[in-house]
Structures are given as C-alpha cells and as structure tokens.
Amino acid sequence: MMNHNGIRMDQIDERNFREKVAHSIIKRQNVNYISQAELDRQKEEEARKRAAEIAERLAADDAAGEAALQDTIEEVKRQKEREAYYNPTTNSYSGEYGREEVRDEVAKEQIDKILSEKSEELLRTIEEQTGDE
Predict the structure, then answer these.
(1) Residue 23 and residue 21: Cα distance in Å, rounded?
(2) How far apart are CA 52 and CA 46, in angstroms?
(3) Which end of the chain is more exposed for a tag (fewer CB within 10 A), N or C?
(4) Is 8 helix (H, G, I), strand (E, B) or coil?
(5) What is the number of other CB atoms lying within 10 angstroms of the CB of residue 131?
(6) How does 45-79 read in b/e, with b if 16+ C-beta sit within 10 Å?
(7) Spatial distance between the Cα atoms of 86 and 96, rounded to a whole number of angstroms
(8) Rg, the chain, Cα only
(9) Rounded to whole angstroms, how far apart are CA atoms 64 and 83?
C-alpha cells in the first residue's frame, strides 16, 4: 500500500492507518469522491494544457523575434536606399525629395488642383498646336 505522498508503507504503517480510519469520524467535506484514475487523468490533462500554453508562448516569442528581425532588415534596406540619394555636392539627401506620400488632406487637394491645372493647360497647348497645322 502507498500513502498519499506516493511513499510505500510498511506493515506497521498500514496497521496504524487502518486503526486511525476505523476510529475516526468521516466528515462529508473530507471525502474525496474522485477515483485515483480520474485524478491521474486530470493531472495529465493539466500537464498537457500547461505544455500547450508553453508551446504557444514560445511560438509567439519566435514570431515576435522574426518580426523584429524583419523590421531590422527593412530599416537597413531603407537606410541603404537613403544613402544612395545622398548628394555630396549639396551635403543633403536631395534625391528623396517628393518620394514620401503626402498625408495632409489639404495639401493633397492643393497638389491635385495644381496638377489638374497643369494637365489642362498642356492639353490646351497641344490642341492649339495641332489646330494651327
């Protein structure tokens, strides 16, 4: 027989345990209605859940590390591209002018208006030139 800690009991311990149980009053709150097999199954299930949580955390950490690595790679690429636009004569990155997207809505409207005026003017000039010939 084994005690509650999983340690094998000798004959004296077994006799003492039987006497203690025989002379004790069993209280409802002290009775465990779950079999040992069910307890073992529950412990295995908890261990599996913990293992799955650990695996998920490791996967999330790997994904975060991969994302950070990709961000670093992209930053290095942008830096190299920026260095390609450096103009040593003017000591500036003049090749970058106009490459970023305009975020201000008012500025976008102004740019679109100016570009449409330029294209209309160009079309008028072309029509005038073709009309004269």
Answers:
(1) 6
(2) 10
(3) C
(4) strand
(5) 7
(6) eeeeeeeeeeeeeeeeeeeeeeeeeeeeeeeeeee
(7) 8
(8) 40
(9) 28
